[in-house]
Design brief:
Helix content: 10-25%
Number of strands: 20
Structural class: alpha/beta
Number of domains: 1
Number of helices: 8
Largest sheet: 10 strands, mixed
Shape: globular
Strand content: 35-45%
Distance between the termini: 51 Å
């Protein structure tokens, strides 16, 4: 029988007793989970009870609408969804060049195939990996502290039953084609806790695209996900998160990248839906030659709020990083960007850039940007900047003069604006898949 962890008693000092959730959001995985992981779950639950919610005084939540994060409840995931139609829906709209896939419906695997992956690559559902490769997972699992304000959410994630993928690529193996992870989530205020852990050993390469989608537009799932990316000794990881939920969903994702000697991590967010989104991404360049590429393309409309916080943390000499975040806003939507380049005392010869650009498609849209630098080393090259503006009348006139209607012209210009981010990804199949989703969202606005 699978081992189960007794639910710890609730702390009487908790300020959240009876709110959000009254017990750890867990279910039986069918696997015997290791003791060290069960201890993480127990410690995380106690920390969740003791950690206060963000307040207006928290710098990491500046400009955020805190009413959106005070969840009235998080309900358990239901299992009464007809899965056959969802599997068919997934198979009819996949990344054509993908070399492996895993489909989750409300946190449960309903379809997967990793048979084409090279020999030696480990690609398993996270709970199976915890049970069968405990020591390897432990070495990389949640090794970095949450730095950008979402401790409350991270502790709830750590206490929950997870769903997601563990990928370990041995040295010198290059995976020719992306691995596709797809989450369909439904129900009312149902909790979903995906965790993706990717490790690229020396001179290896892996590309992963993770897609989040609601089963119907009326569904209102709450996703609190985490991603650990670890590249070392020339290893390379490309990770792209495509969030295409319905208008009632709430979505949080916390990404942590550790980049070793001569290694590279490309980390990309694409947001096309959800009432509220919070993305946090920390990239640590921990050894010489480390390179971080952080991209984001976001299309917001209605009253959606996209809140993105980043940290480019240079801890070693001769490291590089580049960040490009772009937002196209319509109606009464809001975006928030807060980014920091931090260069440590010994991180000489750092080369780092940070750019946030906002295109406002209505007079009521709101874009907030707070780029920043903290430099404690010599001989560095760092810059940051942010711009906001509307589509110019001259651009519209130019296209109208060539027979293109004004509304179509605006869509073309806005898509070109976001497409610069998409084109920085590797792999034609990944770029085409994401581009089609962005175009479909533009047509729906």
């Amino acid at each position: 029988m699978p081992e189960t962890l007794k639910q710890p008693e609730m702390s009487s000092s908790s300020s959240l007793k009876g709110e959000w959730v009254s017990e750890p959001p867990r279910r039986d995985t069918g696997h015997v989970l290791p003791d060290w992981y069960q201890q993480i779950q127990a410690d995380s639950w106690h920390s969740f009870l003791e950690t206060p919610e963000p307040t207006r005084k928290d710098q990491d939540w500046r400009f955020a609408d805190l009413k959106k994060i005070r969840f009235e409840r998080i309900t358990p995931v239901g299992s009464s969804i007809e899965q056959g139609a969802i599997v068919k829906r997934f198979r009819s709209n996949r990344v054509e060049s993908s070399i492996g896939h895993c489909l989750f419906v409300n946190g449960e695997v309903v379809d997967s195939d990793f048979s084409k992956l090279p020999e030696g690559v480990i690609c398993l559902e996270i709970n199976e990996a915890l049970a069968t490769h405990s020591d390897l997972v432990k070495e990389h699992f949640m090794q970095d502290p949450v730095r950008l304000g979402s401790e409350k959410f991270a502790t709830l994630h750590g206490s929950a039953t997870l769903n997601g993928i563990f990928i370990h690529v041995p040295k010198n193996i290059v995976i020719d084609g992306p691995i596709e992870i797809h989450h369909f989530n439904g129900g009312e205020a149902t909790g979903n806790f995906p965790h993706t852990l990717i490790v690229a050993e020396a001179n290896s390469f892996v590309s992963v695209i993770e897609n989040f989608e609601t089963i119907s537009e009326d569904d209102s799932p709450i996703t609190i996900g985490m991603v650990d990316l670890d590249a070392r000794d020339g290893g390379k990881i490309q990770y792209a998160s495509l969030q295409n939920n319905g208008p009632k969903a709430k979505h949080m994702q916390i990404n942590a990248s550790r980049i070793g000697r001569d290694s590279q991590v490309k980390n990309c967010f694409v947001n096309l839906g959800s009432a509220w989104v919070r993305n946090e991404a920390v990239s640590r360049m921990i050894d010489t030659g480390a390179d971080s590429q952080m991209f984001s393309a976001n299309l917001a409309n209605s009253k959606e709020e996209y809140d993105q916080r980043t940290l480019q943390l240079h801890e070693a000499q001769h490291t590089t990083s580049d960040l490009l975040y772009k937002n196209a806003l319509y109606d009464q939507s809001r975006t928030i960007f807060s980014g920091l380049i931090q260069v440590g005392e010994n991180a000489h010869h750092t080369d780092s850039y940070q750019t946030c650009r906002n295109m406002l498609g209505s007079d009521e849209a709101e874009a907030n940007a707070m780029p920043g630098l903290e430099i404690d080393a010599d001989q560095v090259k760092c810059s940051h900047g942010s711009t906001s503006g509307q589509i110019s009348d001259e651009e519209i006139f130019y296209l109208k003069a060539r027979g293109i209607p004004a509304e179509r012209a605006r869509r073309m210009i806005s898509f070109g604006f976001l497409n610069e981010v998409i084109q920085r990804l590797a792999g034609d199949g990944v770029k085409e898949f994401i581009g089609e989703k962005v175009e479909a969202k533009f047509r729906a606005i």
